[in-house]
Task: structure prediction
Amino acid sequence: SQQGEEDPQALSIQEGENATMNCSYKTSINNLQWYRQNSGRGLVHLILIRSNEREKHSGRLRVTLDTSKKSSSLLITASRAADTASYFCALNTNAGKSTFGDGTTLTVKP
Amino acid sequence: DTEVTQTPKHLVMGMTNKKSLKCEQHMGHRAMYWYKQKAKKPPELMFVYSYEKLSINESVPSRFSPECPNSSLLNLHLHALQPEDSALYLCASSQVLASYEQYFGPGTRLTVT
Result:
């Protein structure tokens, strides 16, 4: 299956701490994207990392990609209560299909 | 305008009803997507349109019928749905297929009674 597997399934931290989520997959990808979803709402795109890239940053977000290990990680630094959400990795192939991982539910306590 | 809009926000329909979900974007994107999301699950791809042509159908039952009348609009026609079809239906668009980030609408919460 192309679906990404994310861990942990749930993560609870205090405000100010860092949060790390991981995504592993099994087949070749064109790019990998991370999205955030607040409860019952649409997804918000965070970062896209292409298969020939190793690391990307956006504000407090850092994404790494290791194609040899078929894994990616999302690091949120100095977390805030507003970061509480579900985070999904999405695997994209040249065929145009996006397959989402199971997601990590992040709770940031004030 | 970087917004994808979806109407209605909520929909309750009986198993014999016919209804439609609507999605609109004005970003000039040429790829549009329908996803289904059950509670506490990831979105599941249903259909993909590229340049107004159906590009991907993920073996979705025929009671779901997509339509792309023009490059800005995407509809999902619903007929004879089952209670298990109750879910959040998400529309998304991207500049072109595969290579770019997708912009999601807020979704339509569908309940089939």
